[in-house]
């Protein structure tokens, strides 16, 4: 019976080593979230995040099937700047790869269309198939070739549009991840997660001598918050505006990211209180500062 090892590092992610074809490990690993890629069984998306429950579940299932399993994990986080740089590189590589697929498909579409036009030019305009004539079958084969090239032209054109969309999506996704409103929301979420983790650590009755998963999580969250705050500071230094409580007073007007203007009824720490979207609705609603795109004073509005 094979000796299996399930490993995890933040650089490489989670992988199962020591398996071989036909040893019955495949169905067990697949049932526990592993996929076979790059020559090994791995958990997709496990770089820089470890699903310990999935690792333990896979190990227990393999042991129950009679395999000897060793688990080796290192949950030490990597610097956020390294993680984000690699993410941006992968997004750029995906966009380039998809753009290449689109260009190739477009070239095939153009070539097929040109070939169909070339074949069609060999038939006089309006020339019917002469049924019973010795040219009938040759004419029909000629038309079939034209139809095949036309179909290829249409199909490859669809592929080109699909891969163009995938390339745009890869680029837009990375831009969205790095824009100011998204980054501000991410910082707020990370800070809430950090506070929760620190409360859990403070509630321990005994502090372990070695760092635990919770300690690694706190280190990771602290690094991520520092990284994204530095990105915001750099954007502000470059001239970007980050709106806050200090920018508004009651009576000002705020423009949201959708292009609508709202009168400020109250200025809060994290939001502006503004009227409802439609006049017939009662009450008020909140406009977070990360959704603010511009400001006018009451005098400017009037």
Write the layout of secondary structure elements.
Layout: E1 3-9, E2 13-17, H1 25-31, E3 34-37, E4 40-43, H2 52-64, E5 68-73, H3 80-120, H4 136-178, H5 180-202, H6 213-237, E6 253-256, E7 261-263, E8 266-267, E9 271-274, E10 285-288, E11 292-296, H7 298-301
Parallel strand pairs: 1-5
Antiparallel strand pairs: 1-2, 2-4, 3-4, 6-7, 6-11, 8-9, 9-10
Helix pairs in contact: 3-4, 5-6
Can I get a quick summary?
With 302 residues, the chain is α+β, with helices and mostly antiparallel strands. The protein contains 7 helices and 11 strands.
Overview of the structural elements:
With 302 residues, the chain is α+β, with helices and mostly antiparallel strands. It has 4 domains: 3-73; 82-177; 180-237; 245-301, SH3 type barrels (Roll). It is built from 7 helices and 11 strands. The strands form 3 sheets. It has a 5-stranded mixed β-sheet with strand order 3-4-2-1-5. A 3-stranded antiparallel β-sheet has the order 7-6-11. A hairpin with a 3-residue loop joins β8 (266-267) and β9 (271-274).
Total tally of structural domains: 4
Indicate the radius of gyration in whole angstroms: 30 Å
Helix content bin = 40-55%
Low-confidence stretches: none
Order of helices and strands: EEHEEHEHHHHEEEEEEH
Strand order of the largest sheet: 3-4-2-1-5
- In what range is the share of β-strand residues? 15-25%
Largest sheet: 5 strands, mixed
Counting H and I runs of at least 4 residues, what is the number of helices? 7
Query: N- to C-terminal separation?
Result: 82 Å
Shape: flat
**Rounded mean pLDDT score:** 92
**What is the total tally of β strands?**
11
**Structural class, please?**
alpha+beta
